[in-house]
Amino acid sequence: MINSKLICIYIFISLLISSCNSTDTVEDLDGNIYHTTRIGNQTWMVENLKTTRFNNGDLIANIKSNTNWEQSQQAAYSVYNNDSSLIKDYGFLYNYFCLKDSRSIAPKGWRIPTEEDLKELELFINSNSQTGIFLKEKGNTHWLPSNTTGNNATGFNALPGGFRDNEGGFYMLKANGYYWTDNGSFELYHWSARMFQAFADVRRDEVFKQYGFAIKCIKEE
After folding, report:
1. For residues 134 and 13, what is the distance between their CA atoms, to the nearest angstrom?
2. d(CA 19, CA 34)
3. Could you tell me whether strands 110-111 and 161-164 are parallel, antiparallel, or unpaired per DSSP bridges?
4. What does the buried/exposed string (b/e) look like for 125-145 if buried means 16 or more CB atoms within 10 Å of the residue's CB?
5. Cα 115 to chain center, whole Å?
6. Closest CA to 43 of 18, 22, 57
7. N or C: lower Cβ tally within 10 Å for the chain?
8. How far is Cα 41 from Cα 9, in angstroms, rounded to an integer?
9. pLDDT tens readout for residues 113-125
10. Are 98 and 76 in contact (CB under 8 A)?
């Protein structure tokens, strides 16, 4: 049976967002172009970050080997399974040291989202139990089939880019999407309609500093 409450929420959000979606773009130092979407009072990047440079032009280390990734205490990024064909869709997986580097990984005028930003996003969508559906890419082009297929009503276009753990292993491509916040992560799972913030918390466990997650930047307002 179709959930009538969910349909009403979807229609409301679609109408509200269609009047304020942004057609602006932002460019990083590598020349990558990111589209943007306006969700309530927030502006988010549609594509995952794929810059190889900090804002001052310094290169970010690209670490491929598992051993070097595990031992690294510097800002670094990787490509899932070191497969360059995945960059276009999923961007890069960055470790936590990238977020805290004073050279700044986010393009000028943008930043890493906070937990408060996510609360505001959920409040605007007004459905904690269905937030993920409105954020996920529409359909199953990238996501594994499930009964919680996204409709992407927000234009957020969350993708299941998986993650890299502290030992260098890659996991969950096409199943789950993991994104950094300033002190942890937020996640969307193919099997769930929710958005979660339970996987990583560097304040609780510093091992997560060496995990690699995707980044979606939010505009400084």
Report:
1. 9
2. 20
3. unpaired
4. bebeebbbbbbbbeeeebbee
5. 13
6. 22
7. N
8. 18
9. 999 999 999 999 9
10. yes
Total Cβ atoms within 10 A of residue 111: 17
Which residue, 36, 63, 132, 58, is CA-closest to 102? 58
Segment 5-11 long-range contacts (CB within 8 Å, at least 24 positions apart): 6/127, 6/130, 6/133, 9/125, 9/126, 9/127, 9/130, 10/134, 10/151, 10/153
Rounded Cα distance between 155 and 37, Å, is 6
Three-state secondary structure along the chain? Answer: CCCHHHHHHHHHHHHHHHCCCCCCEEECCCCCEEEEEEECCEEEECCCCCCCECCCCCECEECCCHHHHHHCCCCEEECHHHCHHHHHHHCCEECHHHHHCCCCCCCCCEECCCHHHHHHHHHHHCCCCCHHHHHECCECCCCCCCCCCECCCCCCCECCEEEECCCCCEEEECCEEEEECCCEEEEEECCCCCCECCCCECCCCHHHHHCEEECCCEECC
pLDDT tens figures, 19-73: 445 669 999 999 999 999 999 999 999 999 999 999 999 999 999 999 999 999 9
pLDDT tens digits, 131-143: 999 999 999 999 9
pTM of the model: 0.91
Domain ranges across the chain? 21-219
Residue at token pair 């460019």: 27
